[in-house]
């Protein structure tokens, strides 16, 4: 056998081997049931169809059944939301650390942590060591004012009598001038005594007992009668708010540097949002903020950025952004976890449509636009950010165009049904 015959024989044997191997690989596919294969072919035909019918038509009865809702593509100032997690905190600017106005002993605590209180409400009863001395000084100053008033009245009477005597030649003019000077001195003395009294009354006002009672149990220790020797005073709430902590108890000796309790005004709260370094560089004070918490899944809270930290957290790689939000109903509470969305202005208007208007058609995002009576055309669109149930349309739909919102899914279903082969 010559060399050419050997080569042809080897090639023939190799070809047979390849065919046998291919047959072995294809053999399992031949065992797929015919019905399943036909269904898979139909689905693939729809999924891979390069083009769909441009419109879908609905009969009047079908239109009534699906109950379509329409909306217009809105043109709004463009923003890009920056998403972050955060924690609700007290507003540190409205957080009061309350201590005794003087050195003393706590007689009773009227409130507990978590209690809501009003401005002027008594929070604690204090035995203030300085209060009795202040009351005595106030009483002395009040008596001095009374004496100064009496002296002024006497000086005025002497001056009036001297004026009559000078006219009648009973006294010299010099005596009249002396009496006039005595009146001026009496006036100055009265003003000085009144200033002293005002000073001591101010100090007493700071330490003064509050007669109103009221605590978390509806009861309070009554205060002693206000006499110069009484030293029973009170700690009162300077603002409306909630008692966030109580750090003292009855019997404790306290002074002006000893915090007794902390009072927080919850009319506004702070939220610390942890923003990634990449996004934080674009955040500025004054930007709008939207907040959501698990406790109120159907509610959103609005606020604004007030500060961006000057350093990043080395452990998380985030930068703290402080936000302030109104909280008039007290719904937001300290230490709640929150989802924060910071609205970054884009500096241009953008088109927005409701999320419900968007449908996926064979891998393309599309909206349905009314094009005639019972007829709807679909348009491919390019989308951007999504926020508050609205999605940005980057391209494919001009502002003011009417689109199908609720019910657009039924138009998609009808469109795909019409595109399925009848076989």
Task: Please characterize this protein's 3D structure.
By secondary structure, this protein is of the alpha+beta class. The chain has three domains: about 55-75 and about 350-420, conserved putative lor/sdh protein from methanococcus maripaludis s2 fold, CATH 2.40.420; about 80-90 and about 265-345, Efflux pump adaptor protein, beta barrel domain (Elongation Factor Tu (Ef-tu), domain 3, Beta Barrel), CATH 2.40.30; about 95-265, no CATH class. It is built from seven helices and 22 strands. The protein has helices spanning about 5-25, 35-45, 60-65, 130-170, 175-205, 275-280, 410-420, and strands at about 55, 70, 75-90, 95-100, 105-110, 115, 120-130, 230-235, 240-245, 255, 260-265, 270-275, 290-295, 300-310, 320-325, 335-355, 360, 365-370, 375-380, 380-385, 390-395, 400-405. The strands form five sheets. The chain has a six-stranded antiparallel β-barrel. The longest helix has about 40 residues, at about 130-170. It is elongated. It starts with a helix and ends with a helix.
Summarize the structure.
This protein has helices spanning 3-26, 34-47, 60-66, 131-168, 173-207, 277-280, 408-419, and strands at residues 55-57, 70-72, 74-90, 95-99, 104-109, 116-117, 122-128, 232-236, 241-246, 253-254, 259-264, 268-276, 288-293, 301-312, 318-326, 337-354, 359-361, 364-372, 375-380, 382-387, 390-395, 402-404. The protein is α+β, with helices and mostly antiparallel strands and 423 residues long.
